[in-house]
Amino acid sequence: MMRRFVLIATLLLPLAAVAQSPKSKEVNITADRMEILDAEKRAIFTGKVDAKREDVRLTCDRLVAIYAEVKQADGTVKNEVTQLEAEGSVTIVTKNQTITGDWAKMDVKADKLVVGGKVKVVQGQTILEGELLNVDLKADKSDMTGGRVKGSFVPQ
Questions:
Q1: What is the number of structural domains in the chain?
Q2: Of all residues in the chain, what percent are helix, strand and coil, respectively (each to 5)?
Q3: Residue 67 maps to which CATH number?
Q4: Domain containing residue 24
Q5: CB atoms < 10 A from the CB of 27, how many?
Q6: pLDDT by residue, tens only, the chain of 156 residues
């Protein structure tokens, strides 16, 4: 049972990089339902999912955290989230940006985020819209693809 609490406490660590905020231990998640599939190494949150960690908030209809057991130097085993998959009315809010889309996937190890389906990025009065947003957090690079991209840039 303790492993499940550790898993929940680490779910949004990768999203902290999006917010560029220091790591914190507290994560608050609410959902209509939570299911742990230990054999598949998945935690599934469904129904009005609202996950908050410091300056980052993720809301969606369904959130799947895929994790792996990693052996520590002291011999203990720790669960580490390797991927996050959000579906349905996805909204990621940081102190600087709001990103919305139909779905999002994050590869935690590679620090890569992909948001798809009617993507909208709002930063202040600047708005970008497209079908697919790719973000490489390590390279500090993002691109919008998948058809016509629309941007309205307002200097601050």
A1: 1
A2: 10, 60, 30
A3: 2.60.450.10
A4: 2-152
A5: 18
A6: 333 333 333 333 334 333 333 444 567 889 999 999 989 999 999 999 999 988 889 999 999 999 988 888 999 988 888 899 999 999 999 888 999 999 999 998 888 999 999 999 999 899 999 999 999 988 888 899 988 999 888 877
